[in-house]
Amino acid sequence: MLSGNICFHIDDFVDVVFWVYISHNNKQSERWRKLRNIVQWTPFFQTYKKQRYPWIQLAGHQGNFKAGPDQGTILKKLCPQEERCFKLLMKDILRPFVPEYKGQVTCEDGELYLQLQDLLSDFDSPCVMDCKIGVRTYLEEELAKAKEKTKLRKDMYEKMIQVDPKAPTEEEHRSKGVTKPRYMIWRETISSTSTLGFRIDGVKKADGTSSKDFKTTKTREQILEAFQDFTNSFPNAVPRYLERLKNIRATLIESHFFKTHELIGSSLLFVHDKRKASIWMIDFAKTVPVPDNVTIDHNSVWKVGNHEDGYLIGINNLISIFESLTKDDNGNIDQCYSNLSLDKNVRRDSLAT
């Protein structure tokens, strides 16, 4: 826990909770038909009428979420900074692009939770993808605190060599340890966070299969392939995602909240089924006000002290890649997408790693 009510686990750089619902009953009663619309996989989950059903947590922080008291809601453990953001966002033009905040709830155990809109309640067997947006997932304050304690960490060295045995230097191999700042910076360079300003954190398909093996998915080509796989058999999802991304970008540019905050560790949640598709901004525990003497444009290269988050770099590259999905092998707009107005000058950022 940092000062200023910023909530995070300093050793965890993927602040995402993935859930999968497993049914052990093949008979579809009326209640089970209703259950199809309940969250099956997402940072937002709930049960039906407080009944218990088997859930499997794939990754994340156990105990952060509970079923909401009302249908179509979930409870997320209170983080004061995130609650502050939601209160501001409910008054900002970004409100249509974030979960609706419905206030605090005190549970039987005395814990405080935020009651939020369940984003998957209107979808039937949805496909879900979580993309972490920005060129870094740690606050400058986190990095500064980590630099205060430069002892070698064996656990972080082991995490590093699991991904890339060649990543540590000869000295780090000899000592079998790396410092926390070294690990924090390296962690961002192995994925598309550093190259495209966003990374895929996890995907769940309509058939229930899921994957979070995207740690080293880095290049534009790799991301394009992952998006093609995610939207396969759902051709209507691509143009709807593209339109939603452009609407989000246009609104961000005009948003007072966006102009005055750096968004760190925040995600875009992509959701589609056979009928519809949409995207929401989620996870604001590390979204903090920009210092009074600092102005950021969310589109410049980050250097320590300038507080740039690269959020628009990520959005622009997402738009560019989804536009690529609308084109045929010759680079022409596919006939089924011919009525779309596509950007011709989307910035294709590639940040130095």
TrEMBL record:
This protein's GO CC annotations: cytoplasm; nucleus
GO function term, MF aspect, one: inositol hexakisphosphate kinase activity
Organism domain of life: Eukaryota
SUPFAM superfamilies cross-referenced by the UniProt entry: SAICAR synthase-like (SSF56104)
EC supergroup of this enzyme: transferase
Record bears the keyword Nucleotide-binding: yes
Keyword terms: ATP-binding, Kinase, Nucleotide-binding, Transferase
GO biological process entries: inositol phosphate biosynthetic process; phosphatidylinositol phosphate biosynthetic process
Enzyme Commission number(s) of this protein: 2.7.-.-
PANTHER family membership: INOSITOL POLYPHOSPHATE KINASE, KINASE
Family statement drawn from the similarity comment of this UniProt entry: Belongs to the inositol phosphokinase (IPK) family.
Protein name per the record: Kinase
